Amino acid sequence: METISLNDGRTVMVRGERWPIAGAFTISRGAKRAAEVVVVEISGAARGIGECVPYARYGESVAGVMAQIAEAARTLGGSLSRETLAQALPPGAARNALDCALWDYEAKAAGVPVHALAGLDVPRPVLTAYTIGLESPEAMAAKAAGCGHPLLKLKLGGEDDESRLRAVRTAAPDARLIVDANEGWRADGLAALLDMCAEAGVELVEQPLPASEDAALAKITRAVPVCADESAHDSAGLAGLRDRYDAVNIKLDKTGGLTEALTMRAAARQLGFSIMVGCMVGTSLAMAPALLVAQGADWVDLDGPLLLAEDRECALSVDGALLHPPSAALWG
């Protein structure tokens, strides 16, 4: 843990936390058993808090993100704000934690909720997908049959994906399905895999190809809408994805916080993309600001806390598959 005193009387505290996952969570790149998160607290006239999840895929670590946050706080000092932060840090986890903490701080100091501060409507509950990690066809089918969620997100990207998908569809014939390959497929077999998904009634396929190889998506007929995840980080890169993807997955840990996520949502809509709002595996604190972005989204995947063995106090309320907006005691 580190505390930085700013020259306007505020303090910025940054710490790392570890939240065990219920079992293991496996995708095409490997398995994890805990969510490693970074929490920022800004104190002064009020107290604001934010959480991010450093992601190794983007070269991030807990130690590295904590160092970025501390350096930005020292450099900006009393001028630390959402506006100056956007110039001091690139999009990513470090900027996300600070940006969300600043939103929370400003809202509490003003005595209004974040949605009002941002000029947004009162948030409503959203239907979240429930993610089933990459396992054997039998294990994935058993989880699909027993979870009771109407919208399932299946992690694929391994051998025998067809058997996995067929097993899940048989076990949960009425469930809506999203597939996430996490860059695990290759261009030479992509058309057949998308046809397989179409036959199973899949609504959306996330990031089937590595981001460095996704130009191939512009050259094939997509039997199922395809969503950019690892290929889409912030609003600046959206126009270059229009011929390859039908939707974009907006995650605050990629955009660098709520500020840019709202900008990216507006830009994506203007360009004709469908919208998915997603998350890394983190606590309710990380999901709370994302719920504002998720209002009106075509798909929502904010089930990170549902995958944990335990969550924070004042956690988001879940009613079946409906995720409710946070209380002020958590964030916002």
Outline the structure in words.
The chain has helices at 62-76, 82-88, 93-110, 114-117, 137-147, 161-171, 190-199, 252-255, 258-271, 284-293, and strands spanning 2-5, 11-27, 30-43, 47-52, 126-127, 130-132, 151-155, 176-180, 202-206, 226-228, 247-250, 274-277, 299-300, 318-319, 322-323. It has 332 residues and is an alpha/beta fold. It folds into 2 domains: 2-111, Enolase-like, N-terminal domain (Enolase-like, domain 1); 126-323, Alpha-Beta Barrel (TIM Barrel), CATH 3.20.20. It has an 8-stranded parallel β-sheet with strand order 6-7-8-9-10-11-12-13. The chain has a 4-stranded antiparallel β-sheet with strand order 1-2-3-4. Strand 12 (274-277), helix 10 and strand 13 form a beta-alpha-beta unit. 47% of the residues are buried.
User: The CATH topology of the largest domain, please?
Assistant: TIM Barrel
CATH class of the largest domain: Alpha Beta
β-sheet strand percentage: 15-25%
Structural class: alpha/beta
Residue ranges: pLDDT <50 for 5 or more in a row?
A: none
Return Rg in Å: 20 Å
Total discrete domains = 2
User: What is the CATH architecture assignment of the largest domain?
Assistant: Alpha-Beta Barrel
Q: Ends: how far apart?
A: 23 Å
Spell out the helices and strands N to C: EEEEHHHHEEHEHEHEEEHHEHEEE
Mean pLDDT: 96
Number of strands: 15
The shape, in one word, is globular
- The main sheet orders its strands as 6-7-8-9-10-11-12-13
